[in-house]
Amino acid sequence: MNSILNYAKKEATPSKKLQQKKQRVAKKACDLVSQCIEKHAQVVGFELGGSYAKGTWLPEKADIDIFVKFNKKTSEKDFRNIGTKIGFQSLKKHKPYTRHAEHPFVEAVIDGTRVNIVPCYDVSKGEWQSATDRSIYHTKFMSQKLSNSLKGEVRILKKFFLHIDVYGAEIAKEGFSGYVSEVLISYFGSFEKTIKKISELKKGQVIGKSTKKFDSPVVIIDPVDNNRNLGTAISMDNLGKFVLASRAFLKKPSKKFFKKPISKRIMKNNDKIVVVQFR
Known about the structure:
- By secondary structure, this protein is an alpha/beta fold.
- The chain folds into 2 domains: 14-143, Beta Polymerase, domain 2 (2-Layer Sandwich); 146-273, Poly(a)-polymerase, middle domain.
- Helix content is 45%, strand content 18%.
- Strands 1-2-5-4-3 form a 5-stranded mixed sheet, with helices on both faces. A 3-stranded mixed sheet has the order 6-7-8.
């Protein structure tokens, strides 16, 4: 198995050339944002976030996320409007467009890399005013928690998710986000230990610690906010695919689990057995 995991890690690690390219894009985007926020008194600063900032990004999945921090007394109207305005002003030379989550944010492509300008409130931990407020704390937590070795394990898990077609937290996907990948590795310690735990998963099992009760097929506690269940966003179907793929890999490890997504070739008749495979 070690040779296969070493292969997976190599495939999941960006080349030095690509890392240098992303560094240039990140610097360029940060410089653009820095120039724009000076005009707005409600903004207290900005920070890089997401997998790029944490060093867990994949060669084929490397967005640059910049979180613009607003004074916590800023009205929701100004938060939305000024946040969007900063995004468009910063990225005006790169054909920016609006995307929507709980609040709108602005995205554009710079030198082949997607750049997201996302507003958040500058609040103390636990005093969340918007869904994006936790993101900066996620970055800080994982930057401290993940060693270079563990970052490699996260990349292997993300590659695995990509292959079995369950990677992504978008509403349409209902899969495993990059942050969930990091959380699982931080809880279990390696890719191999993670899939061993998942292969034995029981319905409603809790991963992490919380005094709050949750009702979802799997409960994954956010280490930054133990009242938040990251498992809520994951569909039963995608969870089932992860369980089955974990069992299949452990039974017969292969490099094919880390190549292009071809989940149907690995797990034939998967949709017939996903729901009944929990122990």
